């Protein structure tokens, strides 16, 4: 392949030296045929030659130059050259060249950050899709349109266009582009929270990149996979990826260290998790990074049982999100303009038609100056009035959209406040019922203990009090108290114990159910030791064993059982 590229370069250089100052139409067509095989050599020939002065030769030269720059990974943001091609191919020319002219105009707009203008150009290029039999450029067009829709969070349309791009890449036999399209579809599914659809596509892309030693595809597939397994808390999959790709080989950014921090938190390694979060904070540079970090700090604190840290980070996250939403609402709402692409295209067509009318009027101005001028002024004012009405309607629609978003934001604030108040109330009532359940028993134990230590010195009397204390301690763990405790947990913890008994009826013993009650209610290790007779230092081991059993089960409410265990 490299030898063939060198040969093409030599042939094209020879062509360039023999062609003089300007390239003929036949030479430009030869360069066009070699574009996909050696774009850098084609660009060298084109830049060494002079630009033709008029006609299709000038338009084709401009189109091939911008196309060669794009294929050589030169991001051009100035549309002065491609406009030469689009002005010519707007009215005539081969359908494929007309499609490519507007496609590469869209690419130039995209490089300049003008997404709306880029979509307008791509929409115009799409008009020629049915007239050409060239799956490769059509696939490129659909891929770019899908990328723009994805950036505007219109994921259904993004899936539609990238899926069409994949079909055309398959027809063209472009294996690497097929892999990139599948990876992009996986990314869209990941953004849509559809992990089951995203995982096989991203894994397929990663395997393809490993087989073909393609570092770009490996890196662009590995990061989304880490995000996916981080979102689903799939510790086994994260283990396998970190074994194959050590931490120091991964992209060194905030998102990566957030994933690493959550991974260590899942493994209950507090020190490593906090170190990773510290690295992430040092690399944080944008408002998006800050939001991710507060969210990840909240999840890590919740996972490690640090309630104060989790609550504090969650409050910071809400405040930060409020500031981002406030700034976003003050900026132009690009997404709300998506439905106006077709309308804007018609406006551009009317503008072009108006220019043609002006040129025709200029040709006969010597004969009918007054008539042509009157007609022109009348049509000009009519078009301006229509444009003014459209702009006013657009402004009203944007104003209504901003108002609706503000109302929705206030409703979200009220709902969050109500949920927080409901949670605090339920927690207080639950604690009161637990306290009532065990207060009488603890008071009796306290009185017996005082009698034992401060009462009579008679040994037989002390033995009776001692046996009574033992009897009351044993009664603390009887089924009656735990049945009442279980009812309280079901009432205030979303029926979690009822779910365990219904969905995992044969998995746990009686002592396991007692331990689950204690864990869900949040008792300390010493209290659990008193209730169950298990050594206090063994309580974390029992807790990990119960969590592992639930994790390995197929219970429908498995996530609820794990989330409620403190």
List keywords for this structure.
0% strand, 566 residues, mainly alpha
Distance between the termini: 61 Å
Apparent shape: elongated
SSE pattern, N- to C-terminal: HHHHHHHHHHHHHHHHHHHHHHHHHH
**Tally of contiguous helical segments:** 26
- The beta-strand count equals 0
Query: How large is the radius of gyration?
Result: 35 Å
Tell me the helix content. Answer: over 70%
Characterize the structure shown:
The protein is an all-alpha fold and 566 residues long. Helices cover 79% and strands 0% of the residues. The protein has 26 helices and no strands. Helix 3 packs across helix 4 and helix 8 packs antiparallel against helix 9. The longest helix has 86 residues. 28% of the residues are buried.
Walk me through the topology.
Blueprint (H helix, E strand, L loop, with lengths): L1 H17 L6 H9 L5 H10 L6 H17 L8 H10 L5 H17 L3 H12 L8 H17 L3 H18 L2 H17 L3 H17 L3 H17 L3 H10 L9 H13 L3 H14 L3 H18 L2 H24 L10 H23 L5 H86 L4 H17 L3 H14 L3 H8 L6 H12 L3 H8 L6 H14 L5 H7 L2
Helix pairs in contact: 1-3, 2-4, 3-4, 4-5, 4-6, 5-6, 6-7, 6-8, 7-8, 7-18, 8-9, 9-10, 10-11, 10-12, 11-12, 12-13, 12-14, 14-15, 14-16, 15-16, 16-17, 18-19, 19-20, 19-21, 21-23
Give a brief outline of the structure.
This protein has helices spanning 2-18, 25-33, 39-48, 55-71, 80-89, 95-111, 115-126, 135-151, 155-172, 175-191, 195-211, 215-231, 235-244, 254-266, 270-283, 287-304, 307-330, 341-363, 369-454, 459-475, 479-492, 496-503, 510-521, 525-532, 539-552, 558-564. With 566 residues, it is mainly alpha-helical. Mean pLDDT is 79; it is low at 5-20 and 331-335.
